Amino acid sequence: MTLRILIHEVRELVSSALTSAGYPLTEFDVSEPPQQAFGDLSCNVAFLLSKHLKKPPPKIAMELAEALRQRIRGSSYILSMDPAGGYINFKANYARLSPAILSHVLSNPENYGYPNFGQDMHIIIEHTSINPNKALHVGHMRNVIIGDTLYRVMRATNHRTTVLNYIDDSGVQIADIVVGFKFAGFPVTPPTKNQKFDQYCGDEVYVKINEIYEKDPQVAEKRKLVLKEIEEGKSEIARFAMDITLRVLQEQLKTCWRMKAHYDLLNFETHIVGSKLWSKAFELLKSNGIAKYETEGKNKGCWVIESKEKKEEEDKVLVRSDGTATYIAKDIPYAAWKLGLVEDPFYYQEYTKQWDGSTLYATSLADVSGSNKSVDKKFNGGEQVITIIDSRQSRLQGIISQVLSKIGVNGNSHKYFHLSYEAVTLSSDTAKEFGIDIGDRQFMHMSGRKGIYVNADYVLDALHAKAYKEAKTRNPDFSDQQLNKIADEISISAIRYNMIKQDLDKIITFDIKESLSLEGDTGPYLQYAYARSQRILEKSEQGIIIAGRTNFAFEQLTHDSEIALIKEISKLDLVVENAVKSLCLKSLAHYAYNLAMTFNLFYEKVPVLREQDNEVRMARLGLVKAFGITLKNTLEVLGITALDRM
User: Fold this and answer.
1) Domain definitions of the chain by residue range
2) Is the pLDDT of residue 325 over 80?
């Protein structure tokens, strides 16, 4: 029982009124009005009928209102209805609705707010996919957090999820690191004690080797040699490159796991190349008339994908005249594999155990275990595929989607999505703190090659230190272990919420001081609201009775702040469903913040523990408990832990 049942009842009544009034049935919207004074729900059907019937919306609304008045008398949850300016507004009967909603929450604490509409649909999500030559910076954190939040909300709604992390272990960035170690004299062991290997490779080797290239062309030539050796995969250099890749990857994963990110499979590019997946996909492209061989013009001798709009864009080259494949030629077969459009060529082996106890698998080209492929997990063949890459890749992803739409079968053609997001830049103050001169500019884009970025581990460490200090002030009797655990959860909360609450199509200007704030519209604010609710229940003398009870005199909760909180609680499943369907994850963060604010206002306006009427006090405690369940479940899909103490 949620707000959904009230919306459904309004829809049924309006549809019935349309029929009885002789109006045509039409699609209409039932949603919350902009102001509480207008009621709980509002219907726009009169505006939609106005043009067709050539009547003003207020007149249609008045006529429908007459038909509705008779019907709402027998309604379970609607108290009244009034037409206003063409809209039809409805007020809920909270004497009936509140007990139904809150009893439902208390009866379903684990699953409340998670609508079961996924029906085991297989969703493949690819995110992170960072070149394994450096540590994560704050820009990468946005990708990881978006991807992991999407995984969590898909899983909560009963989708069968597979999370992929693509490892480009054959690119030029890996070659640069190998050149640094093999030909430029960089020691393989970090010279600074306790420095993470990925930070050493990215902060020092990668940055400095690019500086060396500019001064010494002979060293730059070594990159071509290393790339060839890696591609062939048989030499000592190739084995060394793989060892370096795995060492960097392991450190990157540690950072991702600090943010509580979950993965199912690591896809190595060398395995994709070695599997001949491209040749199979290429045959599909040719047989479907998508790949065209050019016999004249500037692309003579090349295989290309013709542009849909010849005047606006040039044809995209797949295979150059010298027979080498372009970047997009690597992405198309991988995308086709994800959708199950080509035969799966891989074996899978256990790679490691993750922070949550789950097994992380990796692709393989050989059955190293002596058994066949994983028997209990299918990694490809997604009914829907979502690839999370920043907006700079939008054109490329659009071409891939266009290609797949032409070779897709069984409805898969329209199920490949690119979830795009804008970059994370550094604020001028943050740049100055790191000794970067950006002149009069307000922000600056990050660059791994130039060393202009802020490491993710640094941000998490700084957040942890601040959270530890505040937690110790509030809980001087806590052990160091307890304080560190709280600080871990607060730091994760701060960064995850900060990234999710933003519009995906807007650039984030990262400011180190602002990110360390634990107040206001932040993740820790939500955790504080939850902790407050648990403290209220803990202090209650009726705590034991409340623990196993689901029915209270909720009809006695009539104060505006109580009604507002009950209504906010009732929306969770609608918010979660909308986030899945629209891929708009910020709505989850905004809902969590509104829920926490509404609870804090309720606690300020009415007494809970000091309420003299026992029945009302028990009902308010039940409301507090229902709030805690709702906020905890919301935080779960955001990847934030609800803390009892902070």
Assistant:
1) 3-92, 122-275+338-426
2) no
